[in-house]
Amino acid sequence: MTSSALWWIRRDLRLTDNQALAAALHHAASVTPVFILDDRLLHSKYVGPKRTAFLLAGLAALDADLQTRGSRLIVRAGDPAAELARLCAETGATGVYAEEDHSPFATRRDATVAAALAVPLHLTEGLTVRTMRETRKENGEPYTVYTPFSRRWKERGPVQQSDILAAPARIATPAGLTSVPLPQNPSLPADVHFPAGEAEAKRRLSAFAGGEHAPVYDYANQRNSPAVDGTSGLSPYVRFGMLSARLAALAAYTAIERAPDAERRAGAGVWLNELIWREFYVSILHHFPHVRSGSFRPQYDEIQWDNNATLFATWCAGQTGYPIVDAAMRQLSQTGWMHNRTRMVVASFLVKDLLIDWRWGERWFMQQLVDGDPAANNGGWQWTAGTGTDAAPYFRVFNPMAQGQKFDPEGIYVRRWAPELQHVPTQFIHEPWRMPKSEQRKARCTIGADYPSPMVDHAWARTRVLNAYKAAKAPT
Asked: pTM for the whole thing?
C-alpha cells in the first residue's frame, strides 16, 4: 500500500473497536486523523458548555493516545467539505473514512461532503451494534415499537470478543501538517464527574460490568433509585464514542453469561435492554427524521401548549416547589447529568403539569447534559410526553409526590440537592407544604420563603393536560 487516507473523527473518539479507523488503515499506508471544528455544531442552540468541554477534553486525550502510536490529531476549523478537500490535497489522500451518523444534520452534512469531495467518502458502521438494515422487519419496514425491535436485535446473537477490533499499535501519519489549537474552553467543573477519554471509559466499563460482584448484577434493583450510584455512568462516553457500543454490549453479554444465579443474570439483562433502547431511538431518528422537530405522532403537534416562559424559567432553576423535581433540575445544572428516573419525572412535570411544549425541555436538556444525544434525548422526551412511539400513553402523568415517595423514600436524594429541606421530617420531605407551621420552624424551612410553595396544583394540572391532549386527538 502506498496511498494515503483521512480518518474523519466525529463521534468516535477512540482507537479500540473503531471501524472507520480500521477501514482507513486497511486501505492506506498513511492515515491522517482529523477533527473539524464546525461552528454549526459548536454554536448550535442545542449545545452547552459542559458537553463542549467534555468533547474538547476527549479530543485532547485522543491526541495523546495517537502520539504514543507515532501519529497525532490534526484539527481544522471551518466548513467540513472545504477543510477535508484541502487536507486531501495536502496529504494526497485517496479516500476519507468516517463512522456513519444518523441525525438529520449529520445525514445532510455527509451528503454535502460526499458530493463536494474529489475522492470517495466511505461511511462505516460503529455508532450502533446493529446496523439499520439488521433491525428492520422482514418486509424491510422499520420497527416503531421497542419490544419487537429488541427481539429482532437479539436474534443476531451475542457480541463476541472476536468482534472487537484491537487498537492499532502504530499509525503512520504525514509530517508537516498544520493543526489549529483546540479552543481554550474552561475545564469541566469539579462537580462534573466525567473525566474524558477512552481510558476512563474502559475503566468505568470494567468497574461496572467486570467481576463476580459487579454493580451490573444489581442494576435491575437499583437503577430507579436516584440516591444510589446504581447506573453505569457510561452514557457520556458512548455518546462521543470514547467507548464503542459493541464493547459495551460485549460486557453486558459476558456478565449475563457469567452470572452466578438467575436474579443477577436478570440484572445484567436489564442493562443490555437499556443499550438496545439507545439503538431503538437511533433507528427511529434514522427512519423518521421528522421527530427531530415534531411529534412522532403528528396529531400531537396540534396540542395547544401554554408555553409560559416564566414557568419554564422556574422549572429550569429547580424552584417548582416539588422537591423531587427541584432536586433533579439542580443536579442537572450543577453536574451536567441527571438520573434516568428523574429525567422522566421532570419531563412529565414540564409537559403534563405546566403544559409546556416538550421541545422546550428537549432543548434545555441538550444545553445542559454532558451525555446529551439527539436520538436518545428526543426519544426520552417524546416517550414521557406521550407523543412518541409508545403505544399507551398520552394519559401517563407522573405524580411528583408519589414518584419521590417510591424512589427516594427517605429523601436522601432530595436533601442532597435541595439542602434547604435538609431538616424536613421524612414524612413531609416530598410534600413539605403539608408541614404545620410549628414543624416548619423546627425544620428551619418556611414554605414560601426558604423553599417555594408548589407552583401548580398537580390534580388540577392533570385534568387540564388530559383535556388538551384529547382536544388534539379529536377528529376535525
From this structure: 0.96
